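Re: the pair you flagged

First of the two:
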Amino acid sequence: MSFSPSPVGLMDSRSVQEQREKWQRKKTRTAREMVQTEQKYCDELQLVNTYFVEILKAKGTLRQDIRESIFSTVTSIYSVNQSLLVRLEKGEFGRGFDDFCPHLHYYVTYVDNIQNASKVLALQVKKNKAFRRFKKLQESRPEFHCCKLEDLLLLPLQRIQQYKHFLRDLTENTGPHSPDFQQLSRSVEAVSEVAQRIQDNARSHDNQLQLRRVQKLLKGTKAKVIVPGRWYLREGWLRAVPPKGAEAKPKMFFLFSDVLLQAKHCNRLHPTNGDKFAGQRFYPLRDCTVEKVFGHTKSQGGLLSLTFPKAKLLLMSSNQEDIDDWYRSLSSAVCQLKSRNTVIHQRDPLVRRPLRSNQDDSTPTPSTHNNTTTPGRKRMAPPPPQTPASTTSRTPAETLSSASKRVKLSEGPEESAPAGSSCVIL
């Protein structure tokens, strides 16, 4: 008797084989593209290193500190990527990136310095005539293909993003039992961290630009917008409804991660402040409650109610989409601020400091005055000794005047610190 394989088994084995061949084709295509782009990337890094870094170092056109501020670790990056290219051309992708990732700190340093490098480069182009002529001459070489130095300095940041996508494709199309799989997986995590750092730095830089722009829009220095940890969210015109039923007036509102700033337009006929705004109030969002009074359906606009501990604000708009966007932005900002404060103020009851140390419990300190003190309370310092001369030399009139001064000072009310959640009128 002869046994022939069933048609179902043949189809299953054929589908598995076809899937493996499909993965292999994708992996081969990704590997080929990575090698080609790596060769081009190394050639462009060589242009920067040869025609700028080395020549500027030999000629002394720029001081060493200025040169390092502009080019940072680009020479080290070029050296590391040359070694990586040798591995990739041999097809050793897993081993190549496993050796490459420990040197990613050069990229981290370069990423953190890129904004400062752009500023220093722009300043030198503006003020250093010799460097400006040198830069123009080097960029006119045929090897640069009309590329500017500013564009070439951004290549390491762009390459990290490309590495992340290439490595993900290679990992997805590599079998888990392959010797390269673990190495590629580790490389994906390491490169993704640097890519995330690039995005965070770019987002932080854009936020600083927005804060500076808003600060320039405001008249005077009372409304201080640039504060560490503050993020710009949005801005726009809304009608503020007064509490006594007067006519709603349009106001400009700037929403940040921690406050809402209300401002009004300055007099347009003013010679210097005609295009600026005057800050009126800061509304802290920490204890704010946002509600929709109406505008839940697609009607003509809506009304938002913002409740603060010491103030209430009604905002109105005739644009339904605009009022919905403001509601989402305000609710999200308040929610994130409250959740962040909740995490900060969490306290573990199991790790409290003892009221007294073990040494204090075992060896009590003898008191010179034989007074018993309650644990946990601060001891009052003994009053300074008064000499008889000091009491006898004062006349009764001086004694009465000093006593009256002490009475007047003690009768004044104590100033309390302003609450952090109350609105600030500018």
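Second of the two:
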Amino acid sequence: RASRPPPSSLRFLRFWAARRPPPSHVKREPKPATSPAASSLPTAGRPPKPKTPPRAFRNLPSSSTHGPAPVHGRGPRSRRPLPPPPPRPCRRRRLRRGESAGAAAAAARDALLPGVGARPPPGQGEPAQLRRHLPTVNSRLIIENLMKYGLLIRAGFWFSARSLGDWPLLMCCLTLPIFPLAALMTEKWAQRKLIRDHVSILLHIIITTTVLIYPVVVILKCESAVLSGFVLMFIASITWLKLVSFAHTNYDIRVLSQSIEKGATHGSSIDEENIKGPTINSVVYFMLAPTLCYQPSYPRTAFIRKGWVTRQLLKCVVFTGLMGFIIEQYINPIVQNSKHPLKGNFLDAIERVLKLSVPTLYVWLCMFYSFFHLWLNILAELLRFGDREFYKDWWNAKTVEEYWRMWNMPVHKWIVRHIYFPCIRNGLSKGCAILIAFLVSAVFHELCIAVPCHIFKLWAFSGIMLQIPLLFLTKYLQDKFKNTMVGNMIFWFFFSIVGQPMCVLLYYHDVMNRQAQTNG
């Protein structure tokens, strides 16, 4: 009985009600005397031994109309009912290897209440059926596309003769490490008090501004490929964000050190590792680490898992190839057979946008998985970087605000630390701080897309700024309907059905029109 799960409350009462002693008017049979020798005999033919109910149920009123049932050994009920016994302590099951506390609690709940909250066996249920059917359906669509159109991937997709002409962009990328070294020298001079604080701030502004203007000038002067320009602008934007964090954090460290020297702050509660000055090793590690927020030291792992890194690299190659296959096999033919969405027929534009929604969503998911889940974790493992929260479950976002807070955690932490909190400390409202954060994000989206395409029509800027009314709309709908699915559906509608396909069509036709005018 110890191995059998205890019954529920209702079955528990029925269980003991069936085993209660007979009423007082029922004649009891005398209890046969037993001996140690007789206790070892088999029980065949022996009358069943009456079981005494627990103390908590002895004084319950009898179902008979002839009065209460007597308490064994105490005569008729004349004393106050005894209090219920204290609950028996529940023995906690030890966790198995690799099992979480939540999984153990759920298993214990399912064992206590069979049929309530029970999970389907492995390989069954709706998610398992979706995992089985989705690859089958997609494989059939891929085979039909290959049979109808053939393999459309060009030999020059990964490397072409035009890529050799992008050597100015490569040289620009190789010279970007000069700016972190210049920022380090500025901090060294400020730490030794060779220059004043306002001079160091001015030098940091010049360094961070140059690190953005320099790649923009190189890309606009050279007729390079769009992909090469995007990679250069992406690296330059990351460098700018890191240098801003480096300058901001070191300024706060200098202010804190000066307050400790003056006695305004007790230094006993501050770790010396977190207020030491920058070194060449710390700057190099920060520029390579998968984070945008500078600090003198980071949590580190004990060793590098080489086998795990190899598997993740193979996955990264596979998903990058899958992303290229979807672009060449599906997106390019659809876009080439379309018209400008703002100049052609409205119904044709809707049909192209809906047809592009599925492949662009797959490309986005492959890019997200390859970069945020694979590449950043590979980089963190090689550098033994301990803080690996690169994203959260943004696909379950109930509002647009939650999506922007969860899908890119390094950028979110940078914005909160270097834009949002400084705006709040300077007396700005929360709404104004959010507006400034979206404005900075929109500027960098426009730089990373418009500069490589040599087109400045503010499509990307407008798309990011339009997120602000969607932010308040999804928040209002969630508060009004008290349903998390409303905001999630609106988010996915604007994210995968309208936003990305429309952006692809707009920039593609603008790039094609620009190339036609240049060649003409």
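The radius of gyration is 35 Å.

-B.
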